[in-house]
Design goal:
Largest sheet: 5 strands, parallel
Order of helices and strands: EEEHEHEEEHEHEEE
Number of strands: 11
Strand content: 35-45%
Distance between the termini: 26 Å
Radius of gyration: 16 Å
CATH class: Alpha Beta
Helix content: 10-25%
């Protein structure tokens, strides 16, 4: 029988979802947004973010593997802009990849972000929007920024479905909402 879990009710682009609360550190829980498989939410979020990005001049969307990939794909369709995914595991077919280290709040361990060799030319000299599902500590965002710098791209905006934690840290983020941290 599944465990009953506390949830946090959110409204995202006109849709309601109950996000489960998970402990990520002693005395600290977060509301976990998992958009994988939620096509309705992904499409609505992409449409809402496309509207918020419409006045901005940019060439490409960049996201990190894995949960935000469907959002990047849907936003690419909405905006007509291509997207690139920074991978978390290096594979030999990626060739001479650019990389940066990051630590996600959900994993709690250092991870790498890799830009595939085939995407270097697609990124170089371009104006990029960095995209994530949730921006919490900013570590993944900083890793994406470092990879873009190495690739010769200019980051012109950062966007997410939600920011999380101290809202004052995320005033510059184009987001659809904000999630609190749950401390006990």
């Amino acid at each position: 029988m599944p465990q009953t879990r506390d949830t946090y009710l959110v409204d995202i682009a006109g849709l309601q979802r109950h996000l489960p609360l998970f402990e990520v550190a002693p005395g600290l829980r977060i509301a976990v947004l998992n958009i994988l498989g939620d096509t309705e939410l992904v499409q609505a979020s992409a449409k809402a973010l496309a509207s918020k990005l419409s006045a901005l001049y940019y060439d490409i969307l960049v996201t990190a593997e894995a949960k935000s990939i469907p959002l990047a794909h849907a936003l690419s369709i909405e905006t007509g802009k291509p997207y690139v995914v920074l991978r978390k595991i290096y594979k030999p077919y990626m060739g001479v990849a650019l990389s940066a280290e990051t630590v996600s709040i959900t994993t709690g361990k250092p991870q790498m972000l890799y830009l595939d060799e085939k995407d270097h030319e697609l990124i170089r000299g371009k104006r990029a929007v960095l995209l994530d599902d949730v921006i919490s500590t900013g570590s993944t965002l900083r890793g994406m920024q470092r990879v873009m710098e190495k690739a010769g791209a200019e980051v012109v905006a950062e966007a997410a479905i939600f920011t999380e934690g101290d809202n004052d840290n995320w005033n510059h983020i184009i987001a659809l909402g904000h999630l609190p941290l749950f401390k006990s």
